[in-house]
Amino acid sequence: MKIQAKESLCIAAGRCVAVAEDVFELDADGFVVDGEIEVPADREDAAFQAAILCPGKALIIVEE
Ligand code: SF4
Asked: The CATH number of 2-63 is which of 3.20.20.380, 3.30.70.20, 1.10.287.500, 3.90.79.10?
């Protein structure tokens, strides 16, 4: 699974790292770091939950 993280949509809610802190990275201000994330197979369920829970829709699944 690949997820595109978009800082411009992030509202710094922190839910992604609450669900999958080893997958997502926030900057010092609490915004997700821009970029395409290759999600390890054993963390796909958690990453998927994070994408659903993200209130800014800032975590876009680009490849399942
Ligand atoms: S859950 Fe979404 S809005 Fe909240 S910090 Fe993560 S990417 Fe940003």
From this structure: 3.30.70.20
Ligand 1 pocket, residues with Cβ under 6 angstroms? 10-16, 26, 32, 54-56, 58-59
Distance from residue 40's CA to the centre of ligand 1 (Å):
19
Tens digit of each residue's pLDDT (9 = 90 or more) over 5-60: 999 999 999 999 999 999 999 999 999 999 999 999 999 999 999 999 999 999 99
- Cα separation of 17 and 50, whole Å? 8
Q: Report which ligand 1 atom has the smallest distance to the Cα of 12.
A: 5
